[in-house]
Each structure stands twice: as C-alpha cells, then as structure tokens.
Amino acid sequence: MGNLHSLEIIVLAAAAFYFLGLAAFLPGLGRGLRRKNDFPFLDPPKCTILICARNEEENIGACLNSLSNILYPREFLEILVVDDSSTDSTPQIIQSWKNTLPHLRMINTRDLEKHKFEGKVSALIHGMDAAQGEFVLITDADCTVSPNWVHEHVRWYRSDTGMVSSITVLDSMKPFEAAQSLEMVELLGLSMSAINYHIPVSVIGNNLSIRKKTYDEIGGYRNIPFSVTEDVALFQTVWDTGKWKVRFKANSDLLVKSRPPESFSMWWRQKHRWVIGGKSIKIMGAMILVLGFIGAFVLIATPFVLPLKFAFLAIAIKFLGDLLIIFPALMRMKQMKLVFFFLTYQLYLVFFLLCFPILFFQKDVRWKGRVYHT
User: Fold this and answer.
1) How far apart are CA 82 and CA 80, in angstroms?
2) Which of 125, 240, 279, 295 makes the best surface tag, with the fewest CB within 10 Å?
3) 228 has a pLDDT exceeding 80
4) Alpha carbon of 190 to those of 201, 286, 332, 337: distances in Å?
C-alpha cells in the first residue's frame, strides 16, 4: 500500500466504502426476506385486484390468465380492470375473459366523469372508488402474478398495516432485460431494507396492496399532489400519516413478473419517468443513488488507475457488495438463474449511471401516448 498514489488509494477506499454501505443494509434485508406461516384473519377478507390498462392488447391476456390461477376463494375476490380509454382491442379482450373469470368487472374511463387528474392517476381514482374489497392489490396489465400472490399479501397485514409491497422482475432472460431485473432486485432490496429500518424510500406500483380504509382516510389520489410515479406518491402519503405502517416483504409467492420494454426508446421513457418521479424520494433514496455512483466510479476508474493485483481486489470488493443484497433476495424469490447475468448487470449499471444526468434534466415525461409536463 505504501507505493500507491493518492488516486489509487481513493479508488480502493471508494470500493471499501461501497461494500460497507451495502453491508449496512443486510439486517433490514433479512427482515424483509423472513417468512411467516401464520394468517392474521379467521376468515379470508374480501380483496380487489385492481389493474389499469391502456392499449394493452398484447399483454392483458397473459395477465388475466395468471389471475385465473390465483388460489384465493373466489367469493372473497374481485378482479377490477379499468380500461383507460384504450384505442386498441383491450376492452374486447377483457370482456372475452368474463366466462373464465365471473368475478371480473371492467369499467371504462370514457364512461366516467372527467376531473382535473390525468393519465393513470385518473384511472386509479376511478378504480379505487369502485373497489369493493377490504384490501386492494394493484398490478399492471403487462404483469403476471403467482397463484398465492393475494394470500401472501394479505398475510402481512396487521391491525396497524396500511400498505404492503414487494419486488418485481422482468419476465425475460435476454441479457439486457436480465440486467434490468438484477437492477430492480438490488434497488428494491435496498428500499425494502430501508423501510424495515423505518426509513421511507420507495415501492413499485405493480406489486402493491393497500387497505381500503387507509386509502380513504388519506383522501386517496384526489388529495395527493400529482406525480408521474403515482405509486411513490401514494406510499409517501401513507407513510407520512404516522398511523399506518408499510411492510415491504419478498419471497417467491409475492414476486411479480413484468413484460420488458419493447424497444430502447420505451426503456428510455420508462427510466425517464422513474428518474423524474424519484426526485421526490427523501434522503435515504439519495444516499442509495450516491452509493450507486460510487460503485460505478470504482468500475470505471479501476482499470485505468490501479495496478493489476489491486484492480482485481477493488472489483471483487465491489461485486461482493452487490451480491450481499442480490444473492439472498434471488434465493428467497427462487430466481437464482439471474445470477448468470451478474457481469452483464455491472456493465448495464455503468451505462445507466452515465445516462442518468441526461434523464434527470430532460423535460416532459412521455408515457403510454401521453405527455406530462415537468
């Protein structure tokens, strides 16, 4: 170490800081991955699965097929799909499932009263108003869920629980998509850990449930300032009540799989929406982002700065830090095959963090054929 220059020491120190920073999340991660076998209700409570769909003719069939396999008493389950003024055959496909899913109900935003809210928030308002369940589970039309998904969400509710969330991955093993899945596992794993430390960060809106009473008490989306990431805004409002707890858990039954973006431009628009919405995330979210930049700095700087033996050491420390979070989460969710894309994920991280400044300052979020001015 005595022969190392100051810049070389900085890179090694950054790798060590990155590892220790992620290691600090391990106890909270462990709480989120812990399994409970008890069910808190004597009888199954009435639940609503809420899906907002806009021009999803390619995806809605697979979503509804996964819902048809849910192992929850049908008399206690409502499936509510809000067709958000689709211009394709989405409404017709939904209607065609009514014989298979007699507990399926569809409403169309075209037939409902207009209000000042726009986009998906408007569809969510109508859906939450119509939902009849004591608990409302929210996912997207391009997602599929496990047979025990509803039961597992309800399992984590106690009398003071207002919301439950979990992790989503992409339903693809192509390298670019698998790298995105690992990104989601690591970021959501860190968010889960922070929430289990009682520090609010974020949740993902396609694997989320909320107690209807909690939603009504906060005034719902009508009482929440508009955000392009409406799920994060809802989570923060529930958290800020101080009355209702948010539980973030992960296992194979809670896992949701989402269709990957169809093109690079769609990936860019999705990341732009998430980055803009992420501006509202509080200090712990910013700390996670800083850790990400430190990790990218180690990956980029190491080959140019460090002698070979120290370069391997720095990279190994960085990789071990990521695996501290990713490996146990993948094991619990039975998604270990994603580990084979770990090196691809490292390259993806550098690429994304280089894109981040452009995404951060880019104006006007474009999503699902709509433009949101920011």
Assistant:
1) 7
2) 240
3) no
4) 9, 12, 15, 20
